[in-house]
Specification:
Strand order of the largest sheet: 4-3-2-1-5-8-9
Shape: globular
Number of helices: 20
Helix content: 55-70%
Radius of gyration: 23 Å
Distance between the termini: 40 Å
Oligomer: single chain
Number of domains: 2
Strand content: 5-15%
Number of strands: 9
């Protein structure tokens, strides 16, 4: 994991910490569990509020699990783990444990609420008994042992870890771990039970690993166990075939919208539709200069790849909201997907330039795990597209209610394109429909079969 990736991961953890604290305050102010317990049932309005809380929490939890899983993938050898990677992993684990314990402390004793949190939701792909799964992770013998290993390493080497964090500007991670340190500490009976069960395996795991490696491994084991019910294929690395990737990159224009799907990914949960994620194509630095957006052009030039011989084609970028927020990213980010749809706005170039300039005003905002378009201080991926194009020329979006909140899902964008309303379908790659990139009517029919 390079320095930029580590910074993005740390930024995600810090933003998620802030968001979880807000979510807790909002939930306690909204949900009157005592009244529900006395009444014995949940009203439709309360059910909607509970579902909103559930979706926000599950998406946040999944983002943290995915983040630590990425650390595991990027550090296949334990002796390559760095103190900074360990801090990102432990801070993420601390947030996961704290949130799970808070959920239990706040709602577990109210049976009707607990049962509601365990109900599946086919629209948002929420499987049954997810709440029970989270709570089982709190009493897992294996999880307790691995967390004990990681926190023991942290306690013994806190001073060195704090210095390493300061060198990379990661001090907030140490603050998160220190604040939640007691939440990670297992009870005495759990510790004794855990130590008894794993004593025989402990010596085996020590062989060939340094102390930091063992601590990092412990965090990875906690997360891999928690993800068992979310990732269908944990080892899957999404990506378009090289030939398809080159074809897609060659046809992109500034203002295009990429709607993508990663098979087996956490991001497929909790969002409606087959293709759940979207990114706005900015193009290359030269494109933005031509469109009259010089400030953004300068930022893209600074992020471009170094010169090569022979010269490489201009680097293309997108504006994309992911768990670390709204960022300018290389085109490789959305192209690291298994299926993709390219949409193109039916607008003049001057209007596309206005839309891109409007979208770039939101760069740097955090991700919106509430999926709520009524505010713009946090933004989900499709909101980048919405805030870019709504009001430009004659473009208007009809926001739909998603779990009681007005928002725009990626499927809504695709249905607009199918109706030729402000967007058209340019190309589709879907492995289920063949190994080639489809264009024209074939592309339209593939999208219609999934989202029509």
């Amino acid at each position: 994991m390079n320095s930029d990736q580590l910074t993005a991961a740390a930024r995600s953890v810090i933003q998620l910490d802030d968001y979880l604290q807000q979510l807790k305050s909002q939930a306690l102010a909204t949900y009157k569990t005592d009244a529900v317990a006395v009444r014995g049932y949940i009203t439709p309005r309360e059910e909607l509020l509970i579902r909103q809380l559930q979706l926000s929490y599950w998406k946040t939890r999944s983002a943290l699990l995915e983040l630590v899983s990425d650390l595991r993938t990027d550090t296949p050898r334990l002796d390559q783990a760095t103190p900074q990677q360990f801090l990102v992993g432990l801070a993420a684990a601390a947030l996961l444990v704290d949130a799970a314990r808070w959920l239990r402390e706040s709602f577990h004793r109210v049976t009707v609420v607990r049962r509601k949190l365990d109900e599946p939701d086919p629209i948002y792909n929420i499987p049954p008994r997810m709440y029970d799964g989270v709570q089982r992770s709190l009493v897992s013998v294996s999880h307790a042992w691995h967390l004990w290993q990681a926190t023991r390493y942290y306690d013994k080497h806190r001073e060195q870890l704090a210095k390493a964090a300061a060198a990379e500007g990661l001090e907030p991670l140490v603050e998160i771990i220190d604040r939640l340190r007691d939440r990670l500490r297992p009870s005495l009976w759990m510790f004794l039970r855990t130590r008894f069960r794993v004593r025989g395996r402990r010596a085996i795991r020590r062989v060939g690993r340094d102390v930091l490696g063992r601590a990092t491994y412990a965090l990875q084991q906690v997360v891999s166990g928690s993800m068992a019910g979310i990732f269908v294929s944990p080892g899957h690395r999404p990506g378009l075939p090289p030939a398809i990737r080159d074809q897609v990159a060659s046809l992109l224009q500034p203002g295009d919208v990429l709607v993508v799907r990663k098979e087996f990914a956490v991001t497929n949960y909790f969002l409606p539709g087959y293709w759940p994620h979207a990114a706005l194509v900015l193009g290359a630095a030269e494109d933005l200069s031509r469109l009259g957006i010089p400030q953004a052009s300068t930022r893209l030039s600074g992020a471009s790849a170094p010169e090569t011989t022979p010269p490489a084609p201009p680097a293309h970028f997108v504006l994309e909201s992911m768990k670390d927020g709204v960022r300018i990213r290389p085109i490789d980010s959305p192209l690291a997907s298994d299926s993709i749809v390219v949409l193109r706005p039916t607008l003049e170039e001057s209007h596309i330039a206005a839309a891109l300039a409007q979208a770039l005003l939101h760069e740097g905002k955090p991700y919106d795990f509430d999926f709520d378009f009524s505010c713009s201080h946090r933004m989900v991926c499709t909101e980048v597209v919405y805030r870019a194009y709504d009001g430009v020329a004659d473009v208007r979006f009809d926001l739909k209610r998603h779990v009681g909140r007005f928002a725009l899902a990626a499927g809504d964008l695709l249905r607009m394109a199918l109706a030729e309303k402000h967007f058209t379908v340019v190309a589709v790659f879907s492995p289920a429909h063949g190994a080639e990139l489809h264009r024209g009517l074939q592309a339209v029919e593939i999208v219609r079969s999934k989202e029509g």
